[in-house]
Amino acid sequence: MKTYGVCIITILFVCVSANQWNYGHLGPDVWSEYYPLCAGKSQSPINILTACTLYRDIKPFEFISTHATKNYFTVKNNGHTIISIMSTAYEQLSVQLRGGGLNGTFDFVNFHLHWGENYKSGSEHQVNGIKYAGEIHFVYKNYLTSQMAVLALFMQSYVDHTKIISDNNDQTRDEWQRYFDMTRLLRSENDSVLLDLNVTSLMGENLQDFWRYEGSLTTPPCTEGIIWTIFTQPIIFIEEQLKLLRDNVFFEDYRGPQPLYNRIVYRNFLHETLSTIPDYNRCVSVMHQVLRFISFFFLVTYATHEHDWDYGENGPDVWHERYPNCAGQLQSPIDILTACTTYKNFTPFTFGAGYNEEHNFTIRNNGHTIVGTFNNETYLSTLRLRGGDIKGTFEFVNFHLHWGENHRSGSEHEVNGIKYPGEIHFVYANPSTNQTAVLGIFMQSIFLQNETEKSSVHLLDEESRREWKRFFDLAQTLTDEDNSTVVNLSLSLLMGDNLQDFWRYEGSFTTPPCTEGVIWTIFKEPIFFVESEFSSFRRKIYFEDYRRPQPLYTRDIYRNFFNETLSSIPDYQCCPKKDSINTSFSTEVEWNYGEYGPDVWNEFNGTCGEIYQSPINIKTACTVYQSFPPFQFSPNYNQTQDFLVTNNGHGISATQANASAYPMTHTGGGLDGTFQFTNFHIHWGENYNVGSEHQM
User: Fold this and answer.
1) Signal peptide span per the entry (predicted)?
2) What CATH code is carried by the domain that includes residue 205?
């Protein structure tokens, strides 16, 4: 019996190896069982979350002149795709490329296509979850190092010809038309034709901007270590061109996106503008850890290269040229549009016992601002910060000021477009996680002709005022860079008493290197100063040292106070709004899971294109605990019932035959009211590794 069992297993293995792999029952979800590398952690393709890409200055590609000449290709149906290799029947020069951040010279190996069941599906890579109709891979290899590189271009298909009138890619489209006219004849495996093609024409002209990452082959054996270049601009096709291929060769031949794990995706262009809904919480956690380490290092040293940026000639508008992060989409400061904030219940802050005591702080002119640091390691633990929904214990790093040219300008953050004369930042870091948090407090000036002006004096906290006056009296003597002195101060008095209400968002440093991932807390109530005392400091040190608000993009701003009352002119049109739901349904097209599948459902049922769609991938690490009451099921659930089981053309559905006589209802589970059973149905896939709609 044992021998017989071994024989059977061997035969099965040989059968699988002979059939190799496909996109059906031996599809991508089970490739790893026969090709273990397909379960690796550097697999391709991926979903490129553009909000999470990092800028890198990469040299442009240098395409050797043979790219622009006609070459003869053997175009073959290999059973998985249509692949084109240079014909050995002709003496031809190598098609090579250099540059693009690649080491050495790379020789052309092949180009091949991936496509899907309709014009909304087929690309292997996705961009912010968006698929294209197809994807072209130009494969190259450095034969000295055995390094492989793939240049990928998306295929964009338009049913409406008028959408491509302005496109100047006719030469590229014509070259591909010649290709499609021949390849539609390659219906059977091993069918092949000889075709002369120009690689430059096939690639098109939009090869400037691209993403770069390290991945794998997208088909077995899924070899890793491949350098991927994904061009941002697709090649535009007329749908009839792709339909020729789709209808005559395969239904689909693409692998879905694989986990990114801790890889970083780079972009060679400075400004990232594709993220219409950039969910920055989806960015790779390891990348955040790297950035936060940089943040912590920068906070402690407070600028390694202090002289390559300033607030003048090398000011905020050009910082990004030396510090690419300064052009990111999580930048600070911002204009807090209070009408658009969302209420969230935060735990209160807890300040260490040392806040109420006076300590010696070193205040220094660092060439950009006046920064106060605490160097007594013995008492540093007494200045710790907890609570406020920031995770863990945070150590005090420094406090510093931003101010402007007059009493109407100087704060970095704004509130409904209103500036304050200045802004104080108290900076903290969690040494365990390298997370940075900043508490920001606005500075407000009061003009006093004399100390008896009752209308303004009541706003002043005399203890806080005296503490800041001692700071200003010494700080204004630090007129030269690297001047420093020691002053005895209490953080509690510097911060004041109005620390109850605040706004919260995720941002960045407001100075280079503009590292992102910083937790910002902006207190609603300012500290009041006497303008004459503040202006004396302003005149003697700088004219201004503040960065202006950066775009919010789609970040959320939360507030910890329930009623939002600051919007004297609340322009709610500025707030992100959910598109109106289109509930119209066209009966002209019957939906399915093929040609009229999920990727085009929204075209005849607008609701399918909304933002609250199911299913989802449940990322358990991102779930939030909430206590729900248990479900309560009615007694009829325990009774045997008659069900009508139907094949409805999409699945198997079972409905209760006598629902009116024996209703099955339930309550609880955090749902409001009573719910009656309607049906149950099943979703399944092509093999035992795929079929569920939700993922976890």
Assistant:
1) 1-18
2) 3.10.200.10
